[in-house]
């Protein structure tokens, strides 16, 4: 049997493909967080834009608002990326409407002030296979936060809009669930999800180390070497979910999206457990938010 491999995709803003978009988005997010305005490349793209596309990723732990500038030739550039703690969702379902609406409204107002324009419409996403009423609730949050209209897209489709996988499996590991889309010839042939994601890893880490759940994520980022051994069983559980959801597609590589697995060694656990090739990307937590914006009208 061929040994599993891990492919770490990297790129620069001058490169082509999803890596360039992710790198640019990370730089824009840093400038927005630091200065409250786009950086120079984003400002130039904004000035030359023929239209803007806005995406709202509600998220389990935080809400992310992304704005793409679209030029006359169709090229897209992230001119605004901002996040705000939410905690208003559980397993991808809105459980605190007031809190979710407040987070989105705050992000929309901040973006409009920083960009100097009104953002009238947006796209937002929901986990695959949840009830239609729960998916519509995500759009309701955006509309209640001041957007005139909100387009709905599932999270795996959003990630695919960024990655453009032709033959492979897109694995979107969110806070509450893991969504999987199998693509052959660029066409979606299977879509499903299972509970289990970053929040469950945080619960495991908190229990294993005797710390508060809200401290688990910062601890994981600050002390990855100490956190990793505690998280291995949780990572293997996510890998098992992926195995079940991709039965019959074992020949295809896995493309990982979402911030839940952004800890050194996580991709190796998946590759060894599944005996599959795992492809990772820089700034993977921005893959889905960018794809949501791409789905906007």
Considering the chains and any ligands shown, give keywords for the structure.
alpha/beta; six-stranded mixed β-sheet; single chain
User: Per the principal axes of the C-alpha atoms, what is the gross shape?
Assistant: globular
Give the biggest sheet: 6 strands, mixed
Distance N terminus to C terminus? Answer: 46 Å
Chain-averaged pLDDT: 90
Rg from C-alpha positions?
18 Å
Helix content: 40-55%
**Beta strands, count:** 13
Would you list the SSEs in sequence order as H and E?
Answer: EHHEEEEEHEHEHEEEHHHEHEH
Model regions low in confidence, pLDDT < 50 over at least 5 residues = 10-15
Q: Given the structure, what is the number of helices?
A: 10
Structural class: alpha/beta
Major sheet strand order: 1-13-12-9-10-11
Strand content: 25-35%
Outline the fold blueprint.
Blueprint: E1 6-8, H1 18-35, H2 40-48, E2 51-57, E3 62-70, E4 76-85, E5 89-90, E6 93-94, H3 97-115, E7 121-126, H4 132-144, E8 149-154, H5 155-163, E9 168-173, E10 177-184, E11 187-195, H6 198-209, H7 213-222, H8 224-245, E12 254-257, H9 266-274, E13 278-280, H10 287-294
Structure, described:
This protein has 297 residues and is of the alpha/beta class. Helix 6 packs across helix 8.
Brief characterization of the structure:
With 297 residues, this protein is α/β, with parallel strands linked by helices. 43% of the residues lie in helices and 25% in strands.
